[in-house]
Amino acid sequence: MSDNVYFISGGGTGGHIYPAFTVADKLLEENCKIYFIGNPKNLEYEIAKQYPQITFLGVEVSGMPRKLSLSMPLWAVKFFFAWLKAISYIKKYKPDAIFTTGGYVSAPIVFAARFLHKPYMIHDCDSVPGLVSRFAAPYAKIVSVAFESSKNVLKSNNIIYNGNPVRKAFFTVTKKEAREKLNIPQNKKVIFAMGGSQGAKTINTAMSSILKTLTEKNNAFVILQTGKNKFDEVIEELNKNYPDYKINKNLLICPYFNEMVYPLKAADIVIARAGSLSLTEIIQCHTASILIPYPYAAQDHQRKNAKEMCAKGVALYLEDSECTDENLLNKINEIDDKKLKEMCEKAKELAKINPTEEIVKQLKSTIKV
């Protein structure tokens, strides 16, 4: 049984939160004691409640204002008190090491670790590292990155390209099992379109217009994840323009999949935004993709994520402003059987054997003996 105590932090967005909890899962398997540092008003708190083995330690922190304004002094005061609280947590619970996945939520614990000379490791999930990662990298024992291009931005003497940590199911569930789970014929070409838990209106609108062509003329099986808040409007549109969707056996429309591994593993082609976690999971499934980056993402990181994937030959690119039904259908048709095989093989080459295990090994190595 392990006696090691770890602080893990990462929050604000799913791209920071889920990789952090994936690492926590692996450490829990080894009977480590885990404290998760996060904002009790954010998603990380809701997820932490699902883990009785994890103790959640709250810090009231928000993103730093990008421009000088009257809100800056208030933010600075709140951050100072969050930093003091993080210091008190380290002194009270005495972690052996600290692991963060970046984002503003992890800033107080990174500053506190630096102040108290506690070893910490950071993992940056995006091709464009955030401000916290840029500050923390020079003082971290190990810097882990999900994209090779991040090496050119972060300053560190010990930077390792690991890819993003992903859940164990992505290495155990097979395509055959995934299709059986979703009642999809094994011999079909499967297209999975998604826009995250909230959905993407651009993707939903374009896909709704070409569902009939894809499922009837192209004889493909289509999975459309609309997003929880956009399901009703998609169904309303289909009832108006394509009422026969209800009897279409080549179609599965769902607000959200709690177990994303199944539609991703079942798919041959994935149409998605370009968040770092989504890209990692797509690659781990050895799947071709059409990426439509969210145009308003911080530091334009989704566009840069997508461009890097396209340069590696695993994806096609489509601007959100150009995502019409005609353009999207052309992109899908561009991936013929030969191109699909090539893209899937390149995704397989790009996929890491088990990034979570490697990251945990590296984290353990930061502990002072």
Describe this structure in words.
- By secondary structure, this protein is α/β, with parallel strands linked by helices.
- It contains 15 helices and 13 strands.
- The strands form 2 sheets. The protein has a 7-stranded parallel sheet, with helices on both faces.
- α12 (301-311) links the parallel β12 and β13 (315-317).
- α8 (201-217) packs across α9 and α8 (201-217) crosses α13.
- The radius of gyration is 21 Å and the shape is globular.
- The protein starts with a strand and ends with a helix.
What are its keywords?
369 residues, alpha/beta, six-stranded parallel sheet, 15 helices, 13 strands
Write down the overall geometry.
globular
Class from secondary-structure proportions: alpha/beta
Contiguous uncertain segments of 5+ residues:
none
Averaging pLDDT over every residue, what do you get? 92
Query: What is the topology, as strand order, of the major beta sheet?
Result: 3-2-1-4-5-6-7
Rg is: 21 Å
Q: Tell me the series of helices and strands, N- to C-terminal.
A: EHEHEHEHEHEEHHEHEHEHEHEHEHHH
Question: How much helix, percentage-wise, in residues?
Answer: 40-55%
SS summary, helix count: 15
